[in-house]
Amino acid sequence: MSDDIHNVDPLILARNLIRCRSVTPADDGALGILQERLEALGFAVKRYQFGDVGNLYARLGKAAPNFCFAGHTDVVPAGKTDDWDDDPFGAQVRDGMLWGRGAADMKGAIAAFIAAAQRFIAQTSPLPGSISLLITGDEEGVAVDGTKRVLQVLADEGEMISHCLVGEPSNPQNLGDEIKNGRRGSLNGIITVDGQQGHVAYPERAQNPIPPLIEIINRLYARLLDDGGDGFQPSNLEVTSIDVDNPAHNIIPSAASARFNIRFNVSHTGEQLCEWIRQEADTEEHDHNCTVKLDLNIMGEAFLTPPGTFTTILQNAVEEITGHRPKLTTGGGTSDARFIKDFAPVAEFGLAGASMHKVNEHVPVSDIDDLSEIYERVLEHYFEEFMVVKKPVVHS
Length: 396
What we know:
This protein has nine helices and 19 strands. By secondary structure, the protein is of the alpha+beta class. A hairpin with a 2-residue loop joins β4 and β5.
């Protein structure tokens, strides 16, 4: 399927992108499609390859402000193809829906933005400021060689982003539900207690690692991290597995481990939580005369883009097209916005995410069209607001 690269149809572009089997970190031509479209619109396009991950940064204009749209062309695996009603990479349109892996998360949003940018550029001359896109192939993976790395390279090259909108599927059910203006942080941890294997009938000849592990877990659960606030729900710790690798009833295991995750708000930093966990582990190590090993990884820090002009522009644009004013939220998982927030104010708004990562992922075709109109309104209102030149005050 082809379309006029100078007059972008968001549905056609979304279907072409979905047909690329870009399961992390594969690209399968997705970035090439975007490069062709963007260069035809006058964007200067750079490709950044880090390891197996391809990335793209495109910019039209050289002046500030620079409004950046961020997203990803990589998708999660489709799973068992037989479980799908159609080929997961076939991009079928039926019953008013676009079906396929990445329709919601988030090839549909990328197509909608490029179509919006094309229309905005066509009716706006000269272009006020700059429009850019930062597209990665690593968001659904380990997120090391994608947005995080490209942002640092861009900063080293002197590139400045004024504000950024990430096209993640921010709406739980319907287009217009929510805008994400922040995210909770995420901390993954593994606690391993080393003991000494032995027969259960002779516990004095062994050292059971399970009791001290349970004590550490109880210590972690005993603390109320916070009550929420500032737009955030309360932080929470969840133990996700406890493993001893011991199928026998009459053997004390040699080691026991537990995995956990903490989703935390701006009341904490990842390092503060790590230090607390280390202290609790040290206490149990001393009390039980055992060895405790910790593997702690901060996956992202909590952040909040305070309500203000930028978020109001987004809310107004959504309300103008959908008739609903979206609420600002910080719930859900993590996204590449956790990296962008160190470089520019950032928020997230895209399609409805009810079917993302599921079999038969789909979005209404009408939502793609509406989202493109929303993005166009965002560009109009953004440059109207931030390109106002104030006259200097002259003192006599």
